[in-house]
Design goal:
By secondary structure, this protein is α+β, with helices and mostly antiparallel strands. The chain has a single domain, classed as Beta-grasp domain (Ubiquitin-like (UB roll)), CATH 3.10.20. The protein is built from 3 helices and 6 strands, in the order E-E-E-H-E-H-E-E-H. The chain has a 6-stranded mixed β-sheet with strand order 1-3-2-6-4-5. A hairpin with a 3-residue loop joins strand 2 and strand 3. The longest helix has 10 residues. The C terminus is likely disordered. The structure holds FE2/S2 (inorganic) cluster.
Length: about 140
């Protein structure tokens, strides 16, 4: 797995998974079926991908479909994502800014190679800017 801008080994086109997280615009790429499970959400969920590449996607319940903090809007690649089950749909009903393309990042699983774009809603981004500690450069 590689950052899109720092590829070392080419990934076969028919096995390439490319996920862009907006609004940050961060794109990550990996070969389908090779991503190690990071134990956050379902394997190959957007949360799992985010955790593997250190992309911040909040997940207050740890990826067990018990909150809505991992809410994302799927902007591209919907056909390659698992269908939402009843538990996810019930939980999404409680999400702020719900749209037709809303999914829980911990439950929406990438099922095939392809390009995917998800946007993290503003309220979650606000949390990022307000709630996450800044990384300060060491001056020693
Ligand atoms: S992290 Fe809580 S529902 Fe996804």
């Amino acid at each position: 797995m590689t950052e899109a801008s720092n590829e070392k080994k080419p990934i076969p086109a028919d096995k390439l998974v490319r996920v862009t997280f907006e609004p940050e615009g961060r794109t990550v790429e990996f070969e389908f079926g090779t991503l190690p499970y990071d134990h956050h959400g379902k394997p190959m969920s957007f949360l799992d991908v985010a955790e593997n590449f250190d992309v911040f996607l909040d997940h207050a319940c740890g990826g067990s479909c018990a909150c809505t903090t991992c809410h994302v809007w799927v902007k591209q690649g919907e056909a390659g994502i698992s269908e939402a089950d009843d538990d996810e749909l019930d939980r999404l009903d409680m999400a702020a800014d719900q749209q037709l393309n809303s999914r829980l990042g911990c439950q929406a699983v990438i099922t095939q190679p392809g390009s995917y774009v998800v946007e993290i809603p503003r309220w979650n981004r606000n949390y990022v800017s307000e709630g996450k500690p800044l990384t300060l450069a060491e001056n020693k």
